[in-house]
């Protein structure tokens, strides 16, 4: 307590010293604001001259954190017009007036009633004024002054963060910057050393150091190895008062992690690996794994594997499993116990990424020997070929040999083989196979035009172990034989216009024909068209081969008449180019038709030309039927009068003749001749009836 009172007494003395300087005369160089007089005009018109007045003062100071029993005297206000008789009253206003700062209105003494903290507020602006005590009339204009709070070292340094985290590569050079820590002090940096900080390291030596003025942490030891120690804990102190005794301090913790660099090569834990593989294994099957250890992490620890030497380089391969960092050895080609029973490989493990800074630590790779033993297995038979293609002629007799398949047992036992056909691939049972020697034969003649290719599957199985089975596809091509004659490609029909003998022949073909052959192209075209030998000199038509697998049919004469013959059937012989050639006779129908003057087709109806000379047989039958019906109608009813009977007959024939006139207008003349007998009968029976008709 005595020490606190002594400190408070010292602070009061310091304040009084400041006050004495504040109230020093102007001649000592301190600011002396003064109020200059001015003239006033009285009521009676006389001019009063006011004498010069002024304050005697300067800036005031008060020390922060003062905790004495009495209020701290900040300073004293005094006007040079104050004669000490008590007629002047001092008034204080502004920031903290009446609460923090109070003034004795008689003496002008100002006291601070509360403990001040510079870090909360560094200064206060106040207004002072002297007035008449009785009238409160201002004797001087108000004047502003400042009370500054004097700083003491009452705030320790504080870091921006309680803890820091930083990384630095392992094996960094001495002096490599790691991180900068920063502390701040709330005290006044412009007054004394209260806010002057100095940094020092409390924990983390001898690995790290810190710059006293900047707070930059740096490495202090060379070749720090992450694989030996990865994480370090460092404690940094910041102390004010320039680091001298009595200064306040604060600390922070820094966790520094060494990041990895590729400074370690991969290393196999053993010199030889022993593995085995069955001869029944298929390519791509895993044989075994090797792993080289690399203490580095991340991409610095990535390892790739390669086969660099050995007699098994063609039969085995190695890939890298990047998840487990293992080298996976796989079968590349099938191995055979009976041919080779052991292989040797030299496998290399190398880093993927190499840091040039540490190339002297290399080489960053290692090798190991891998020995692989081949295990014997009971293997299925093997065909000498992966597939077979055989040929057989169509129409070959049953029992004709198509071809042979051959398989053998690859095992040392060399078991006998039996052959069979998969009947799912030979549903019609066209083929059979000798179970002992593998010869395939036909069971019936084959037709290439039905099926040109036949595909079957043949099994080969060991006699003593039917489960050991192999299969092979066999394609059988049916060879073509010229067993199909060519025929018309379509049902052709020709037309020719009837004409007289004097009309010249046309150079255009009546019809152009082509042929089709079911046989293969080797036994098909070129097609040859001709007339049969017995009508080679046909007087009506001829055939001209165009030598492009088509032919044209032409007329040899003119003057075709439908009345004489309206339909001609022309036989045409078509031969193919096979050996021996095949031929067939095809009949072409040619009709004689009526045409206009331009040769356009009008009608090919046979009745059309018969009506020119007389009625056709069909027309006569129709007319007779109508006559019978008309004659029979009156007998079915009551006897009519002769006039009515004749009128009925006459109308019936009129209708019949009208229908024929619609077919051919030239038939009108025939109608006139048919009417004459009826007119004669009517005239003889009853002239009156004739007149009515």
UniProtKB/TrEMBL annotation:
Subcellular localization, per the record? Membrane
Domain Cadherin: start-end pairs: 79-159, 160-268, 269-383, 384-488, 488-609
Q: Which SUPFAM superfamilies match?
A: Cadherin-like (SSF49313)
Which of UniProt's keywords are assigned here?
A: Calcium, Cell adhesion, Glycoprotein, Membrane, Repeat, Signal, Transmembrane, Transmembrane helix
For this protein, the record's SMART domains field holds:
CA
Q: Which residues form the signal peptide?
A: 1-22
Output a single Gene Ontology CC term carried by this record: catenin complex
> What Gene Ontology terms describe what this protein does at the molecular function level?
beta-catenin binding; cadherin binding; calcium ion binding
Fetch the Pfam families from UniProt: Cadherin
One Gene Ontology term of the biological-process aspect is: adherens junction organization
Q: List all membrane-crossing ranges.
A: 609-633, 667-683
Official protein name in the record: Cadherin 11
Q: Can you name the source organism?
A: Pan paniscus
